[in-house]
Amino acid sequence: MATQTNARRPLIVGNWKMNGLRADARALALDLATRLRWHLTPAFDMMLCPPFPLLADVADAIRGSDLGLGAQDCHAKPSGAFTGDVAAPLLKDIGCSAVIVGHSERRTLHGETDAVVKTKAEAALAAGLCAIVCIGETESERDSKRTLEVVSRQVDGSLPQGATATSVVVAYEPVWAIGTGRTPTPADVEEVHAAVRARLGTRLAGGATDAGAMRILYGGSVNAANAGQLLNLDNVDGGLVGGASLKAQDFWTIAQSCH
Ligand code: PGA
C-alpha cells in the first residue's frame, strides 16, 4: 500500500450477521485466535463481530489473543427503556472494542438514516468504542453515476462529532455487492475510497492528516480468491467480510492476502 501509515495497518473484520450457534461460534473464534497466536508477524489486525448473544462466548474463546471483538449495532442512548436494543457501554463492558453502525441491512431493513447512524456512532465513541461506519450506494445509484455523490452525502451525514483516525473506521460497501458474488472492479473501488478519503479530509477536525490516517475498509462479496486484488489498493485498508468470514480457512486466507 503506497500511502499506508502505521495507523492504517490493514483491518479485517468478520461480520457474522445473524449466523451461528454457541458451539460453532466458539469453535470458529478459537480456530482464528489460535492461528493468530501462532502467526509471528501478522501484517493485519483481525476482528470478529458475532450476534449479540454470542459476544460473551466469543470474548471467552479469544481471551489472550490479539483478535478483536465487535458488535453489529448499538443504540444511540447509553441506557433506558428500549426493549430489544443494546447499549454501547454494555458492549464495551462485555469486551468489545468496536461496533458496526449503519450497515446497509440496518439502513434498509430498519430504516436507519444517516442521522440515526451518526447518533449511534456518537454513542459508540462516548462508550470508548471504535465506530465502524458503513456507507455505500445502491445499484440504481451506481447505474445513474451517483456513487460519489451518495457516499459523500453519507460521510457528511453519518460521521460522528469528534471523529478521529483512531475512533472511527469507515467501511465502503456497495449495497449491490453485499452477498451477491458481484464486486466493483479494483479501479472502481480505489476511485470511491480516494473520494471518501478526500471528503473525510474536509469533515474531520484533524483535516487531511486525520483522513490520511483513517482506515477505510472495502466490503461486499470479498472472498479468498478476490481479496488480494480488492484489499491491497492504495486507499483500501482492509475488509468487512460477511459470508466468507464464517469459514476459518477462507477468512484467514483473506486476512493473509492483505499486506
Ligand atoms: P458479504 O457481506 O461479504 O457476505 O458480501 C459483507 C457485509 O455485509 O458486511
CATH superfamily: Aldolase class I
Written as H for each helix and E for each strand, in order along the chain, the element string is EHEHEHEHHEHHEHHEHEH
The CATH architecture classification is Alpha-Beta Barrel
Arrangement of strands in the largest sheet? 1-2-3-4-5-6-7-8
Outline? globular
Distance from first to last alpha carbon: 7 Å
Instruction: Give the count of helical stretches.
Output: 11
CATH topology category name: TIM Barrel
Instruction: Return the average pLDDT rounded to an integer.
Output: 96
Ligand names = 2-phosphoglycolic acid
**Text of the CATH class:** Alpha Beta
Which class of secondary structure composition applies to the elements?
alpha/beta
Low-confidence stretches: 1-5
Number of domains: 1
How much strand? Answer: 5-15%
Over the alpha carbons, how many angstroms does the gyration radius reach? Answer: 17 Å
Largest sheet: 8 strands, parallel, barrel
Features:
binds 2-phosphoglycolic acid; 8-stranded parallel barrel; 259 residues; 41% helix; alpha/beta; TIM Barrel; globular
Write the layout of secondary structure elements.
Blueprint: E1 11-15, H1 22-38, E2 45-49, H2 55-62, E3 68-71, H3 88-94, E4 98-101, H4 104-109, H5 114-126, E5 130-135, H6 139-143, H7 147-158, E6 168-172, H8 186-203, H9 207-213, E7 216-219, H10 227-230, E8 238-241, H11 248-256
Parallel strand pairs: 1-2, 1-8, 2-3, 3-4, 4-5, 5-6, 6-7, 7-8
This protein binds 2-phosphoglycolic acid (PGA).
2-phosphoglycolic acid binds next to strand 8.
